[in-house]
Amino acid sequence: MTSTTSESVQGAPVDLIGGHYRVVRTLGKGGMGTVYEAENTWTKRHVAVKVMRPEVARDGELASRFMQEARATARLAHPNIIDVLDMGQDKELGALYIVEEFLSGHDLRVHMNVVGKIAPREALEIILPVMEALTEAHAHGIVHRDLKPDNIFLAETSRGIVPTLIDFGVAKIAPSESGEASLKTRAGMLMGTPSYMSPEQGRGEATLDGRADVWSLGVVLYEMLSGTRPHDALTPVGLIAQIIYQDPKPLAEVAPELPAGLSDAVMGALQRDITRRYPTMQAFHDALKSCDLDRGAVSSAPRIESPEESAVVLPTHRSWRSAWLALIAALGLGGALLLATLMRGGEPRDDPPSRPAATATALPRAPIAPPPVAPQPVVPVRVSAAPTAPHPAPPPAAVVTTRRAPPRAARARPASAVTVEAPPPLASEVTTGVPVIE
């Protein structure tokens, strides 16, 4: 809700925290305390203030963990890690508080609930900057231990959406740098979220390093790309048992449409054997960045050639077919020209309008030598005489002999030429594939 007064930490309304943070509204509540949007009365800057409940602060280890979050985050200066601006204890409320930068936007969990599965390119645009932030944290001996979509905030800024890592509340700080004892024993339930815990976290191992974060971020990316998690069970105990003893289902089987290299890179982070996992967050980052997102998953479907590829694959067949078609067309054209010349006698004539187009014109009165043409295949032609006029036996194939009165010997012709003689008064029916001559 939005108001100048907010719900109390001890029963009374909270108006001012730490003397100069005026409460604007409540952003969220949890088991350890409440988060407010507040305004710095000196600078007028809006900030987020986490206030620990006094009864929780009386537990020394939990109070130490709360302040550890502030120290861990304050030691890191990275554009993808939330800034810690202040910390302290309110004397009137008796409560510890942490002041952080106020972010506008929503967390990755909300985004995933809205869009469902996230495309590979967008997923990497979100996760790679977070990996760079974790590389910085690991270099300072800080292991986050609670990586999940809820702790990756998509901040809306003038530069666009900036993925920001938040909530180092259960972070593990190397004793050599923090000088603090481990808080593992009492904070077992606060060591992470079961769905995203690494196998070594589930076993309660004391010696955790950056490879625990590698696993957790691998689970986050697996869920972003597939819409499901690598392990699932009805109870937290059953879920942790699966994580410890069962290999996750390969991402390539859950989301076969993903690029094969991307699926393999994600599965490299989800190796139960820690020695087979990426040794550092930077190595995981580099593996993802080198993935070819334009290459799809390997498919067993037969390859279908495009028309252009088919033309290249079968040049000989198409060439021979084209050559034969051209030859047949040339021979047909030559034969048609020859026949037309013989029938028309070189003079243009109009066909009778009453005749169909398939009817040829009458033969010329005198034989005309045909123009030279390329050799053609010999086609047998049979000419049968009309019943009223006996006709001699037909000459050899490809030679047509016709008689006219008075009889006159025909000139000798080459084998491929056609000898034409005038027909008898009655018409002859030609039994070839050409139109009937009347």
Q: What are the secondary-structure elements, in order, as H or E? A: EEEEHHEEEHHEEEEHHHHHHHHHEE
The radius of gyration over CA amounts to 47 Å
Number of strands: 13
CATH class type of the domain at 105-176 and 186-289: Mainly Alpha
The CATH topology of the domain at 105-176 and 186-289 turns out to be: Transferase(Phosphotransferase), domain 1
Low-confidence stretches: 1-6, 176-190, 297-320, 346-371, 378-389, 397-403, 412-423, 425-438
Description:
By secondary structure, the protein is an alpha+beta fold. Among the domains are: 16-101, Phosphorylase Kinase, domain 1 (2-Layer Sandwich), CATH 3.30.200.20; 105-176 and 186-289, Orthogonal Bundle (Transferase(Phosphotransferase), domain 1). The chain is built from 13 helices and 13 strands. It has helices at 54-57, 60-74, 108-115, 120-139, 175-178, 199-202, 210-226, 236-245, 251-254, 260-269, 281-289, 307-313, 315-344; strands spanning 16-17, 21-29, 33-40, 46-52, 84-90, 95-101, 105-107, 142-143, 152-157, 160-165, 172-173, 383-384, 429-430. It has a six-stranded antiparallel sheet. Strands 7-9-10 form a three-stranded antiparallel sheet. Strands 8-11 form a two-stranded antiparallel ribbon. Helix 7 (210-226) runs antiparallel to helix 10 (260-269). The longest helix has 30 residues, at 315-344. It is globular, with a radius of gyration of 47 Å. The termini are far apart. 27% of the residues are buried. The model is unreliable at 1-6, 176-190, 297-320, 346-371, 378-389, 397-403, 412-423 and 425-438 (pLDDT under 50).
